[in-house]
């Protein structure tokens, strides 16, 4: 196969910009020359990788699959060249994407515990919603993804391509500001309308709550007064007494302990969730491979937060 490395780099640049002209400028070539190189890559691969009928251009399904391979090859080559030039990759940071609430409240204590088992672990963490994080992982733009797992949620990942470790069991709890007697200001029991602080339509945690309420009359009493994609945002509104919300338990431990927040309903209203750490098996970054091997040797209960 007569495949040139610069074609792979061109393709990765095009996937990032979704523009032939912008990619050509980035690669310091004319646009006609850049287009010819992408065509040459498609001929060698034997598949159409770019859908040129859209603006901005998009990748075909074959292009999406090949993008992971292209990024992997380019990164491996750069790492090998760096090693040959005497550049150390031992302390290269791992790029991790995580759901906002996990990045803020879960990741710090969990990574501290993990490092007790695997040693110092340089990381770069970016918080984003779960849908974006899955897209980033699928395109090979990160090394690891920390996300909630719900077997009934719509977004699932092929375990063969995206293996994972279960690292935590959490619950989403319905919570409210207490009244003067310490009872929930907005209880789920009863027949009155309840001001509801909800997750936005595309938020992963929102889909889990909707599954809980799908066939229950309670949903008819919930009057949505505020929406956000972030659990921390809902927590802030609950603390202001605006309404009630479902929030992951690790985000509100201190508030429940101090009595600043109370449960709005019994355990039957809890939403159980699992937290998992994912990787893409098509990407072979030395740091990720080493961490995965180390984690496989640790006792299962050690990985659990």
From TrEMBL:
Keywords: DNA-binding, Transcription, Transcription regulation. Pfam families: HTH_1, LysR_substrate. The keyword DNA-binding applies. The keyword Phosphoprotein does not apply. It comes from the Bacteria. InterPro entries: LysR_HTH_N (IPR000847), LysR_subst-bd (IPR005119), WH-like_DNA-bd_sf (IPR036388), WH_DNA-bd_sf (IPR036390). Residues 1-60 form the HTH lysR-type domain. Belongs to the LysR transcriptional regulatory family. This is LysR substrate-binding domain-containing protein.
């Amino acid at each position: 196969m007569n495949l040139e490395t610069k074609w792979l780099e061109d393709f990765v640049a095009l996937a990032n910009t979704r523009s032939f002209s912008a990619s050509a400028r980035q690669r310091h070539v004319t646009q006609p020359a850049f287009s010819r190189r992408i065509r040459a890559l498609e001929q060698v691969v034997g598949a159409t990788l770019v859908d040129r009928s859209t603006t901005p251009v998009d990748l075909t399904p074959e292009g999406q699959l090949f993008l992971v391979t292209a990024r992997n090859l380019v990164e491996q080559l750069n790492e090998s060249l760096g090693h040959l030039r005497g550049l150390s990759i031992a302390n290269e940071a791992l790029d991790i994407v995580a759901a906002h609430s996990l990045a803020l409240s879960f990741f710090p204590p969990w990574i501290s515990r993990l490092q007790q088992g695997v040693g110092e672990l340089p990381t770069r963490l970016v918080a984003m919603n779960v849908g974006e994080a899955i897209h980033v992982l699928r395109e090979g733009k990160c090394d690891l993804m920390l996300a909630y797992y719900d077997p009934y949620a719509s977004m699932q990942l092929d375990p063969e391509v995206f293996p994972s470790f279960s690292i935590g069991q959490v619950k989403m709890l319905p919570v409210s500001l207490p009244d003067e007697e310490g009872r929930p200001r907005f209880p789920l029991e009863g027949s009155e309308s309840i001001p509801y602080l909800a997750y936005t339509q595309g938020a992963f945690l929102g889909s889990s709550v909707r599954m809980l309420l799908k066939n229950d009359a309670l949903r008819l009493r919930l009057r949505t007064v505020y929406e956000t994609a972030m659990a921390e945002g809902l927590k802030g509104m609950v603390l202001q007494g605006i309404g009630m919300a479902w929030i992951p338990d690790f985000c509100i431990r201190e508030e429940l302990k101090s009595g600043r927040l109370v449960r709005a309903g019994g355990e039957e209203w809890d939403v159980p969730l699992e937290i998992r750490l994912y990787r893409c098996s098509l990407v072979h970054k030395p740091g990720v491979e080493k961490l995965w091997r180390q984690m496989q040797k640790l006792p299962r209960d050690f990985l659990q937060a």
